[in-house]
Amino acid sequence: MAAVSSPEHPRLAVGFIGLGDQGAPMAQAIGDRGLDLHLWARRPKSLEAMADVPHTVHTTVADLVAASDILALCLRDDSDIWDVLNTPEVREHLRPGTVVVNHGTGDPGENVKIAESLRSLGASYLDAPVSGGGPGAKARTLTTFVGGDEGAFERCSPVFAAFSTRVSRMGPVGSGQMTKLLNNAMTMSNLKNAVDLVRLAQQLHVDIPAVLDVISASSGGSASLRALGTAITPEIAPHLQGLMRKDIEHFADAVRAQGLDPEELRRRALAGADGLVEAVTLATAPGHAA
Fold first, then answer.
1. What is the structure's pLDDT at 4?
2. Cβ–Cβ contacts within 10 Å for residue 218, how many?
3. DSSP letter at 149?
4. Which of 198, 256, 259, 272 has a CA-to-CA distance to 218 between 20 and 30 Å?
């Protein structure tokens, strides 16, 4: 679907950094949407995934920023956002009116600080983490939670629509991250239920893949249960486990910052994350009914 361009509505130039398992298909979707896609990658090999999508490659972050109306960042954590913004000449090349968008998951309070640092440059900031992982990005069915100014949100709507089936502005900067962290806490708590079930099924000597398949289609099913061995494979489980542990600590810090106690939910969510690799391994083992 081509993006509409006219003197009144010029074609948006979207800079994108973070061509990982989730970021690359998001960037592909932006290019396929007909937006003017600009890329920079620390490792040139990362650009191979973009071969079939029209784009412009920049050799420095500063050059990418100078060419971008919207700068989309799909990076691991808030520290990576700061690294980009503090790269030499980036702030000098950031044009007034540019919108910087953080698609990674981080701390709500830290995102407020990032927004404040950009405001003095005349740039806007949206925290817009996504849910759905790599599979959702490839299917272009992500959910995007957005915090920030409504005008900046509307300007970025064509970008979000490229890879999302649900986009919701949750409030001011930080509210997108808070919503994502609440979602992740629920996901990992549900994962603890799935881990407990798989361990018990092993002790009962039932066919674990068969049990998970039928329960996933029944009233006991959940997104976490359905993901074991499908969206979450043994190959990617260790990587996801590390991200889950990071995110639940962000969740706990954010809740404590509001004077509330997150410990019960934090402990359960961490237990779910800690059991992920074991659960996926058992979920993908050959069936062996008693």
1. 43
2. 8
3. -
4. 272
